[in-house]
Amino acid sequence: MSMSNLSRRSFFGLSGSAAAILGLGLVGCGGGSDSSDGAKAVSAEPQNGTPANTPLDKLPLPKKGKVYNNPQKRDNVKDGGTLVLPSGEIGPAWNYLSVDGNTQEMHALWDFYMPTYIFLTDATASKFEPNPDFITEVSTDEKDGKQVVHYKLNDKARFNDGTPIDYRAYKAVWTVMNGSDEHYTPAATDGYDRIESVERGDTDYDVVITMKDPVYPAELLFTYVLHPDATDYDKYNSFNNNPHSDDWGYGPYKIESFDTTQCKFVPNPNWWGDKPKLDSVTFKQMDSQALFNAFKNGEIDATGSAQSGSKEMLSNFLDMKDAEVRRSDSAAVANIEVNSTRGALKDKAVRKAFTQCLYMPTILSVVYQGVNWKEETPGSLLTPIWADGYENCMPSDVSDLKDAASHTAAAKKTLEKAGYKLKGDYYEKDGKTVSFGFTTFGDSNTVKNRAAAIIKMAKDAGMKVSEDNHPASEFSDVLTGGNWDATLFGWVSTATSSWNGPQIYGKDSASNFTHLGSKELDEELGKVIEIEDHDEQIKALKKLINLGNEYGLDLSRPAQTAQEAVQWTYMGYLASIKSQDGAAMSFGRVSAFFDIYFERDLKEGKITETDAQEIIDNLVMKLRIVRFLRTKDYDSIFSGDPYWATWSDAGFGDDGRTMVTKTSFRLLNTLTLEHLGPGPEPNITIFWDPKLPEGYKRFCAQISIDTSAIQYESDKEIRNHWGDDAAIACCVSPMRVGKQMQFFAARVNSAKALLYAINGGRDEMTGMQVIDKGVIEPIAPEADGTLDYEKVKNNYEKALNWLSEVYVKALNIIHYMHDKYAYESIEMALHDKEVYRTLGCGMSGLSIAADSLSACKYAKVYPIYNKDAKNLEGHEYEYVEGADDDLIVGYRTEGDFPIYGNDDDRADDIAKWVVSTVMGQVKRLPVYRGAVPTQSILTITSNVEYGKNTGSFPSGHAKGTPYAPGANPENGMDSHGMLPSMFSVGKIDYNDALDGISLTNTITPDGLGRDEEERIGNLVGILDAGNGHGLYHANINVLRKEQLEDAVEHPEKYPHLTVRVSGYAVNFVKLTKEQQLDVISRTFHQGAVVD
User: Fold this and answer.
1) Which of 141, 347, 911, 1086 has its C-alpha lying 20 to 30 A from 765's C-alpha?
2) Active site residue 856
3) Exposure string (b/e) for 901-911, b if CB count within 10 Å is 16 or more?
4) Across residues 411-434, what is the average pLDDT?
């Protein structure tokens, strides 16, 4: 198989002599430059390298993140030949998975006979695919709320002893690596400790991996396999001086011979893939000085990968005409590590001072002086500098030090603050000098000179450091043995190595050689692995910066003025809507944030109040010109072209201060005729509380009366459940800003489920058996021909049970596929790393279900069967052609019954029960990504479509006619006035509908008051009263029916006529004709209370 341009994704490996960034390859070639004074400089490194006799200061620089390995197609590579490579050490610990064998050198050896490339990735590990020699298909999905990975294996794959590489080989990896058995010493347990089970699928070659907690990317947990015998820990721990090539090996090569000086690989006759090209590959153990002569005299064929491209090394080959230098950014990050269990380094102050005294340019000059190489000092072990998302994580008391003198001074200050006194050249405390060793490996001059520079910098800062040198072959034994104070080595991995933070920083990790850590840090590191698609988020942030650049805005820095604060925020919004066309994209709760900038600029004289108002006017104009491309079907459900740029405002902070600011008033000002006038966007949402400033409340009421463009939500309910930094997403859904996201769900037709309950699961519109026969039995009338309330209610619960299962399963599939194919990368990038997810379920038809159950309980409901409807006056339209005769298609109800929406507990309690039951049915089910189920009583404009596809009800609701919106009472049935309607809705328990309970009320201007002052005062009083009676949400329309009827006939006269429908506002003339008529059919209250 070809390995061109592919690397392995695995846990960290140790490198005894890795430097910070440069990866170097020096390879022999058939010919070279004939120039006596070296090759000419080139501007960019060629893929096949640069002649080794190129002057060091003219070596071309590689591009960041690019690999220079001269990739070739397999057919271009000749068969036969040998390859000899150097290695810092060979054995004796042959188990790469254990802490004492987890080295770069052992990784290289394993890849020939126990490959760790079961998944193939690009250089950055941001893209991966299964290696078909091992895995033919991989998928990840969700089952019972848990992440599940499926592998389909190549059934030809075998270990060298003939044992199949089936699901047992993957189970063995999990057993060894999950950290639950102290007999194993894995180098890292990250991800494996989150696996719940590894099981057989349909065959032995199907692997099913179920996660306890999500891991991203979970597919890459298994980049190697283990022989099933490895689950016997006595056998597993027999790797010392035993590579297990003949029995546990499974690669294209096998080991022919080995000792601590060399290892020779030859083609494996048991290998099932493409035949290896080389006749043999030999690794020879060598220290640095031996490498130079070995390469020059042809004893080895390539060298340099661990030598960092130093001047010392490269200068040895300037006289060679038949060699090439290939340089690239390395996946190795050098690390000066301190052992906190040893001597003076037990003191945090000494460790900090040692870190501060090190001036990295000095160290780099020792290695690269005279070589054309530029390098930023790495500030993270978890992400290479060249990788997307790299961030310098060095604390400011190190990173802010600009020269050698400031480093030395800072180190001294740290020691003196900790009570150390300078005595002669060195600090001491309690009679003990600050003294420790610095362990090095190898015999190169670069190693020696680098150590000397570090010792000199430590001495300048008053710390006595001495070198402790060992042969490179002793690296792993010395390091894992712990008999050292400080040392330099490298961690080697890929661009996604942040996945492996627990390995090197985990409190109890065997690879944490500092022996520092904490439970709190472990928890934070553990969360990183749960964050999905880092790469996509990072790329999206870069696109956001580029978007700003197109407008001349530098989004990489903080906003400095009010205008920039508004622009920066808008650019984040713009990037979001560009990436998710058609989705609700709310603007947040920004007035108090903006106001800080405005107040500062006003105080400093940078702007006037007129300027401040103009900035907000301009922002609102920008929000109003957004347009989405949508399908016809989408528009039929979400009519009026909304895009839900919801701007939340007002309310109170947890400390009791009002969050009403001058910008809160500026926002309302935009709706006045003196500014922009009314418009449906942004969807202005006021967090209402009776204690808000009176002037602000009256201004809100005036705007509502003049424009119908504001909705109101209960600040108390939102703050008590979601805190004071919450805002509305979409229509009525509250969530913590930047800390929460929602998987949005379509409305479930809870009213239609009642008709299914009565008909035994058959659809009243078609006669089709939708719920499997026998799950719900049709309800037979009582002796007097009526329906029994208890039987209807019990069947309704069964129908809701079935409906919730279908509903949640569909939502899990939808949101899994959405994440897979339309992941919201920029939105999630602008969130905190810990995101609280909810599944925003919803229901429609509440009032119809409540009134119909009330009719069954308090009146007499007689079913009308299909066989009779055809010829029964007033019911002919309910007849279903071709359906069973006993299908119930209509109802005749005799007697009065309480109606939901009139502050009658008898009906209102039934509505509460329906909401609670639907929520309870959903809560019992597993949800995608562990999201917390919530629900809203909100229909948007889907109430029209749902009604169109639903039959007649016991309540008298006619077949095919619109439902009432949201939690509204049935249109025209809330006959006692606006306040009783609010009080009924306010009785619904917010805990059963944490996503919001929507009430859309319309009152006529005359019903509200005789003049403007009276209307304003009365509307404030109505809102206060509703809020005080538990009302969560209120859409307020102040309109005359005659005006709407005229707008239907003459839309050109009303281009800006705004109405609130269900959680949002629209231009009335943009609604479909059906939805316009629905709005007109709703109750137009003639007063707050009507007797």
Assistant:
1) 911
2) no
3) bbbbeebbebb
4) 96
